[in-house]
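pasting for ref
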Amino acid sequence: MKKSQIIFLLFGIVLIVVLYSLPMVVVDNQGEGAIEEEADLGNSFNPDNQHNASLTPEAQSLIDKLKGEMEIEEDKEKFAIFADSTGAIYAERGKLDSAAYFYGLAADNSPTLEKIEKAGSAFYEAFTYSMDEAKTAALAGKTRAYLNKVLESKPERLDLKTKVAMTYVSTSNPMQGITMLRDILEQDPTNESALFNMGILSMQSGQYKRAAERFEDLVRHHPGNVQGQFYLGVSYFESDQKNKAKKQLEALKELTDDDQILAAVANYLERM
């Protein structure tokens, strides 16, 4: 299970989102391009809310050097190299906002599909960890701006379309995202990401029987999806299918050693 995934632990009927510490590091206003890009992101990036794991002196020194190079670099390709390297340093240390910002600068100055997708995916990852409404909206907008460019050239990339769809779910028009996910499932009925997210959305709306159906489809075709296995058990529990829930959650204990999931499993089993 990827560390970047959001782990939902459900106690009772409340969906509790368990996140790693939010990496809200504000990048410096270095150079005209950087100033313009940060302005696009809005002012919802709070400089006081920093990631717990601060940069080492060595990493900070390297970032300062790279930013200095960007300030004076006139060649866009070289500028993109410096920006991408800076983004990589932030990404390695979990500072997702800053990583996305610099990957975005790299894509803007050297707009290859690879760099555009990298930027969009980075903004999406930051989006999944955001709990501030204004910041979430800004990150969602950036995700769509970059990934839609890739989809224009590669409409078959359903994985990217799923990410775009999920950015709409938290807006005032969530049905747009849900409709996109349904379209994806029409094209690919066994799409892992779409099935998972449709199951989560069903749970959030209290439609646990429908959620169970989604997760049954998910684990039938993707048995290694541990989170899906967990939510299937929870969906059974919440839809009053206690025997199925117990069997599913007991079996899950053999599939994972994730402490958070196992704690949630124990909580549900104690309530049966």
